[in-house]
Amino acid sequence: MSLNRYGYVAGNVVNAVDPSGMIGEHPGAWDSCAQIDEQCELNCSYQAQIHAQWGIPFSYNFCVERCRESSALEKRRRLLRSYIDNLYGCLSTQFPGNYTAVLGMECNLSESEYPSGSVDAMVKILEYGARLYPRISSKELVGEISRILLGTSGCFTVLNQVLFSATDDHPLAREGGVGFHSDYYESAGQVHHFWAYLDTVAQGGSLVATQADIFHECVQGGGRVEDARLSTVAFSLGEAVSNGLDPFELAQKIQSSLGENGTGFGRFFAEHYYTDEWCRRKLIEWNQETELPYPPGFRP
């Protein structure tokens, strides 16, 4: 069989394009001004022609339906990212000493919509996301936000963020901690730490998060009591999310527990394990479960 260099566009090299390198598509489908329905219908019509030429079964209706769903999801993701960029732009405008200005992340919100700090920004993101994605669960919404804030989502999120110091996170996650209660406050990175544990537990990674926490607090020895408290709150809220907590309720709980005018750590959450005795006991359990050696200098 001779090679037909134009077979992928059914020989129609004048009116079809191949941006994916996989299949010919109508140029109008790549016009950002075109409506989603029009884009999907054009694409699926061309794909139907190509499949027919090669005698391959193809469902036009299924193609259009999947295309619409995918296009609508990508549009929502762009809107959510744009909103988060805007929030960060407002924070860098209000608190230039705490949040470094980033080109392309300007503040285009009205003054009444300005976040008062990082905690308020997380609350606003959840509330905006819940309105933007009315049909998805809190677990899925936390995952969508995590992909923007941390560059990843899933039951191993915390491994990338806490253990391997991933650097593809959004500046909102790694910059200043304005707006946190003094029980959790550090100059930077609190959103990064909190959301990594929240997403991991919410996506079903409680065991992974627990082991990562033991490693971070007790083996690495770089943990701080503020981080330890944040982990505890994130564990509690992550479990609630996995059990169906409403996103607006999640936003309220984050504000009431983490916000500078909130309840702080002690009133609603048991005292954290961040003690030498807790670490000693957990390291012994960890050694027995994993058969990994104890850290240097530790004696059970």
List keywords for this structure.
single chain, 300 residues, mainly alpha, 11 helices, globular
Quaternary organization? single chain
Largest sheet: none
Number of domains: 2
Intertermini distance: 71 Å
Low-confidence stretches: 28-33, 267-273
Beta fraction: under 5%
Count of helical stretches: 11
Rg, please?
A: 24 Å
Proportion in helices: 40-55%
Task: Output mean pLDDT.
Answer: 80
Derived structural class = mainly alpha
- Gross morphology: globular
> What's the helix-strand series?
HHHHHHHHHHH
Number of strands: 0
Describe the model.
It is a single chain. With 300 residues, the chain is mostly helical. The protein folds into 2 domains: 7-58, no CATH class; 117-290, no CATH class. Helix content is 54%, strand content 0%. It contains 11 helices and no strands. Helix 3 packs antiparallel against helix 10 (247-258). The chain is globular.
